[in-house]
Amino acid sequence: MHSLSHTGRPPTSLTSPGVVPARVPGGREQEARALLARDGAVVLTGYENTADAIVVAAAHTLGSRLRRLYPHRVRTSRDAGPVHLHADSFDLVVDIGGVPERRRDPDEDHVLIQCVRPAPCGGDSFAVDAYGFVDGLAATDPALLDFLTGTDVDLYGEWAGLRGLPATPRVGRHVEYTRTGRRIVRRTDGAAPLHRDPDTEHVRAMLARFHEAVHGLEPSLPRFRLAEGDILVLDNYRCWHGRDAHSGERTVRILTLRTADAY
To answer: Which residues form the TauD/TfdA-like domain (predicted)?
Structure first.
């Protein structure tokens, strides 16, 4: 795979955007960090299958760059359909004793997923270098590239009825940059046209086009399987991830966070 700088500048040529993360035993932090920087993803092995372990893994892998951890989540699915390619993000603030507390952030820049219980059949993971996907649009679909880089949307407008989601629209573009030049490539099913946007029909058509293009990638992507205790670490600005349908029960822990690179 071609490497990309932390600013997201494209390589001179692109290969398939599919990502198969290298596997690194716990305790080899420098190697894990280098692979995460190179590929946008790495699988950590040898950690205990506990909630504490995923926090320790985040600290070992990201070190002093850590700025904020959000509450870890446990997700169990049974005889479930696929989870399509996405980047983790949500805008969730709750009130605890009269004090607002942020539980999720639209710009979480890393995500860790620990396999608690693998599915007995199916449930394999897949991932994409979203920088490679977006750069490839210059040749394959420049109109979609223009939309992703140049059109504001309400990033969570489709989820406006969810309790806890702020009433104020979160306006942004699918492809943006932090103030230090790091590229963000978003992928969420929550995006919607802005209220009374005169180009609403065009925006809806382009969102559908984006949706179809991303789903069209999935069948040909390489798969990888997380064993019990394995922790997938992703650069959430750069890599989208998903999983196949499965039978039986599958459980994961998810920890999203922000590092110094998110600002």
So the answer is: 30-252
Per-residue pLDDT of 212-230, as tens digits, reads 999 999 999 999 999 999 9
Q: Which of 212, 221, 218, 239 is nearest to 84 (CA)?
A: 218
CA distance 256 to 128: 18
Query: Under a CB-based contact definition with an 8 Å cutoff, are residues 227 and 48 in contact?
Result: no
Q: 51: how many CB neighbours lie within 10 A of its CB?
A: 13
CA distance 67 to 108: 11
Topology of the domain comprising 18-262: Double-stranded beta-helix (3.60.130)
pTM of the model: 0.91
Look at residue 188 and give its three-state secondary structure. Answer: coil
Reference 69, options 111, 115, 31; nearest CA is 111
